[in-house]
Amino acid sequence: MIFDVDAHFSPKFAHDRMAGEFRHLRPRQIHDGVGMTMYFNGRLHPRVAHSFPEAQTCHFDRRMKDLDKLGIDWQLLFPSHSGLYYEVEDSKAAAALCQNHNDGMAEVEKKSKGRLISTAMMPLQFADEAVAELQRIVKVHGMRAVVISPNIDGRNIDDIRLWDFYAEAERLGVAICFHGDADSKLLGWQRMERWRLYVCLGFPFDYMMAITTLIYSGLLDRFPKLKILFAEGGVSYLPFLEDRLMDTVETFRSPLAHDNFAIRGRPANKRPPKEYFDRFHHVIGLDESLMNFVVERYGADKFMIGTDYPHPDAHMNVAKYVDELSTISKETLEMITWKNAARFFGVEAPRQAAKRPKLAAAE
Fold first, then answer.
1. Domain chopping of the chain, boundaries
2. In what order do the strands lie in the sheet with 228-231?
3. More exposed terminus of the chain, fewer Cβ within 10 Å: N or C?
4. How far is residue 236's CA from residue 22's CA, in Å, rounded to a whole number?
5. Cβ-proximal residues to 326 (8 Å cutoff; 6+ apart), any chain
């Protein structure tokens, strides 16, 4: 069985039917001479690839057919613009846009009869509205995951205004799923215009900052049951980050530091940074050269696989990649390919797995 924990879907049907005061702000999918592109707030999205295939990105029936072709049993759906609404400056408008997206994705999830799990977008630049929308998507739709960009319009995700949101997510058992966004103010974004560096370097750099702030702020101590996932950033950076965080903590404790750092300028974590790494779950890049090393170091129960379908860098031949992972033990393979994700998102295994071809590719 295969649980794809990084895929993308855009509910065009929901955007098109949006009504009310803020209808004019909705994302619009526009066809030009090249293909379809998304237009929002005066510019095209996403900046790394303005054209995208409408059928694979926006149509439910096509997605279900593609799952069968690729041999995928479940798929976690992220929007194609995880931090897009953070730039909206009106709180009611931001809330309305998120509600429209989430209602559409809830329809997709329900229609799939359990095969598609949708992440909900949150207006996190307005903490009170974010808490209200979190409560609504659980009460009305029973949704179990939210998507968060690793920066909130350039602010770190440990911003004190968001702690009530994290408290409510922990109380409701909703998973916090981080996904980088090339249209957000990710770490170093001013220097990443060329060569698709927003994704290549921006995503893992932003994740390193997010993990650091989650640990050093004391947020993980405050919310010990918060479920956290990082998608599409790879995992090879984890040992490096662990070493650097441990080194920084030792610096603060050094007798040579004296009183150089104000009390609120010191890390607030109660345990050594490396002991928090077991709080995080990650989506593995199927072709990462350090995968085996990282899985062994942090435990097979922390990792899941993802395809990034239908983005240009998607692993279309997921069946082939999974077969190549069979060099690891059968138990570890099952954990990474579906069991960890099924447990994390609280889904039951089907009685019969989807037929998985050896060589699969969606048209």
1. 3-345
2. 116-118, 74-78, 3-8, 303-305, 280-284, 228-231, 175-179, 145-148, 120-121
3. C
4. 42
5. 333
- Residue linked to tokens 């237009």: 39
Report phi then psi at 252, rounded to 5: -65, -30
**Tokens encoding 123:** 């207006």
Task: Give me the count of residues in the chain.
Answer: 363
- The identity of residue 290, as a single letter, is L
What is the CATH architecture assignment of 3-345? Alpha-Beta Barrel (3.20)
Per-residue confidence in pLDDT tens, the chain, 363 aa: 899 999 999 999 999 999 999 999 999 988 887 778 888 888 888 777 667 888 999 999 999 999 999 889 999 999 988 778 999 999 999 999 999 999 999 999 999 999 999 999 999 999 999 999 999 999 999 999 999 999 898 899 999 999 999 999 999 999 999 997 777 777 776 776 777 776 777 678 889 899 999 999 999 999 999 999 999 888 888 989 898 888 877 777 777 766 666 666 678 889 999 999 999 999 987 677 788 888 889 999 999 999 989 876 666 666 666 666 666 788 888 999 999 999 999 998 765 565 555 444 444
CA distance 157 to 329: 36
Spatial CA neighbour of 120 closest among 72, 70, 64, 165: 165
SS3 151: coil
Structure tokens at 333: 């393979």
Q: What element of type H or E holds 11?
A: none
H-assigned helices in the chain: 12-17, 54-58, 60-70, 91-111, 127-136, 163-172, 197, 203-216, 219-222, 238-253, 291-298, 318-324, 330-334, 340-345
Structure tokens at 11: 């509910």
Q: Is the bond leading into 11 cis (omega within 30 degrees of zero)?
A: no
The string of DSSP codes covering 239-306 is HHHHHHHHHHHHHHH-GGGTT-S-GGGS---SS-GGGGGGGEEEEEPTT-TTHHHHHHHH-GGGEEE-
Distance from C-alpha of 102 to C-alpha of 141, rounded to nearest angstrom = 9
pTM to 2 decimal places? 0.89
